[in-house]
Amino acid sequence: MSELSELYQQVILDHNKKPRNFRKLESANHSAEGYNPLCGDQLTVYLNVEGDLVTDVGFEGSGCAISKASASMMTQAVKGKSKEQAQTLFEEFHSMVTGELDAENDENSLGNLKIFAGVREFPVRVKCATLPWHTMHAALNKQEQISTE
Amino acid sequence: MVTVESTVASTWDVERIRGDFPVLQQTVNGKPLIYLDNSASSQVPQVVIDRGSVYLEQEHSNIHRGVHYLSQRATTAYEGAREKAKRFINARESSECIFVRGATEGINLVMYGYGRKFIGAGDEIIISAMEHHANIVPWQMLCDEKGARLRVIPMNDAGELLLDEYDGLLNERTKLVAVMHVSNALGTINPIKEMIGQAHKYGVPVLIDGAQAAPHMPVDVQDLDCDFYVFSGHKMYAPTGSGIVYGKIELLEKMNPFQGGGDMIKTVTFEKTIYADPPNKFEAGTPAIASQIGLGAAIDYLNTIGREQAAAYEAELLRYATERVSAIEGVRIIGTAKNKASVLSFVIDDIHPHDIGTILDQEGIAVRAGHHCAQPVMQRFNVPATARASFSFYNTKEEIDVLARTIERVIEIFG
């Protein structure tokens, strides 16, 4: 069960149980809806962007532990970052869970998001982890709806 | 008390049956494969694989075309499979059995051939609240095109259709009823014979989606008196790409064709084409010959092992699995109809089915996690998805024990 325990680490289980920034952001000036038709994961990401800065982030929705924890940690990671930094995190996270980026050895700014590296061992779950990031990315770029299919 | 079921279950030689299925003889993640995703697609026995090999090695040619030896052999094998299908569902004649690539294509064939010709503005089509998307979307497409209306038979919290409500939906505007025989998401066996009788009082034809029934119970289309019955080969131990639409011959004769092309015509000029008679009228182009011959072999296999005995054994597996899994604290069974096929859909408080599916997979257990192509069913029960274990006559009680223990482990992990 070693790969499994790497996937379901305590931090991920904790964010699943108590997701951070799990709220609709009334003041949001960017939002997008993400949907994974394969498993029914569905979430809305709200962003408050002032100038170049993401000042606040929130999300709502339902999904598996991986997508929920990923959304929760995404909101923490992106809050307070510039648009460009958020874009970089999105790209690095995506590369890590698809196995293109070795988070331990390659240079990156992922920080505690590295705990999602184990997802690469579960190809069908990669979309669960990336859905919140794709949705955040869509919101930032003013797309209203994205789907992982 | 000794019931008929338990007598059969104790005499069912499951080890011998398992030996017929090469795919079951493997390990997954270091554990013996426990295949509980039979409602999605069932496994293929060696005799069916061998029949496909014989066709490809010795008989392959195009059918209905050549005067040469191989074309005749291929045609004989292909039409032989149609004859087996006819006997399998007790159709009056083999021309009532149209080969399609699965139940989805079958329903679309009826939508195009029957629906587009005979259903118009203001007409109504009745489906049920538990339908698979394959028996919802084609009818929605038709309603959009024609200005017809879709009506839906509701169900109760156990997952049983409300027949009084159904009776209330039938009227002189109803032009078709399309319902599933067995629910893939809930396991419910619908009382279709009674429902067909109700529709016929209004002169309304009935299509039955038998994708989940054909593998698990004897089907007699004459006794049911259904107007159309569709099923897929790959859910009943045949290769993908095989399946049947049964239609009463008098309906098939007056329907439009499905696709146009070779093999579905009598004569073609640039001015006019005369279509072939059923079933060829609905089988344009070269079909999946090897797959359909495989379907014939799978029917032979089911007849050999005994469909009644297989069904009784599966009923015993369902009873045992329901008892084991529902005893686990925090687990809720979705679909508790009195009359069920061997499908066990369940949810666990605060644990998403996808996470359940991943953890079960690590123990070699294959289940389906998701909406089962029945999103309205998920909405009805207010769950985003369910985990579903679906059993075949090659599964064992020991496998169900592993399933139950691993579900307990899932709950431990998520504490």
Describe, in plain words, how this protein is organized in 3D:
The complex is a heterodimer of chains A (149) and B (415). Chain A has 149 residues and is of the alpha+beta class. Chain A has one domain (2-144): Sufe protein. Chain: A, CATH 3.90.1010.10. Chain A has helices at residues 2-7, 10-17, 65-78, 83-97, 126-140; strands spanning 30-36, 41-50, 53-62, 145-147. A four-stranded mixed beta sheet of chain A has the order 3-2-1-4, covered by helices on one side. In chain A, α2 crosses α3 (65-78) and α4 (83-97) packs antiparallel against α5. Chain A is globular and about 45 Å long. The model of chain A has no long low-confidence stretch (mean pLDDT 92). Chain B is of the alpha/beta class and 415 residues long. Chain B has two domains: 4-32 and 306-414, Aspartate Aminotransferase, domain 1 (Alpha-Beta Complex); 49-304, Type I PLP-dependent aspartate aminotransferase-like (Major domain) (Aspartate Aminotransferase, domain 2). Chain B has helices at residues 4-11, 14-18, 46-59, 69-89, 103-118, 137-146, 163-169, 192-201, 221-224, 249-254, 289-305, 307-326, 353-362, 375-380, 397-414; strands at 27-28, 31-32, 34-35, 97-99, 124-128, 149-153, 174-180, 206-209, 228-232, 243-247, 265-268, 273-275, 331-334, 343-348, 365-366, 368-370, 386-390. Chain B has a seven-stranded mixed beta sheet, with helices on both faces. Chain B has a four-stranded antiparallel beta sheet with strand order 13-14-17-16, with helices on one face. In chain B, β8, α9 (221-224) and β9 (228-232) form a beta-alpha-beta unit. In chain B, α3 runs antiparallel to α11. The longest helix of chain B is centred in the N-terminal third of the chain and has 21 residues, at 69-89. Chain B is globular. The model of chain B has no long low-confidence stretch (mean pLDDT 96). Chain A binds chain B through residues 1, 3-4, 7-8, 13, 16-17, 38-42, 62-66, 68, 122, 124-125, 128, and chain B through 350-355, 358-359, 362, 369-371, 375, 378, 384-385, 413-415.
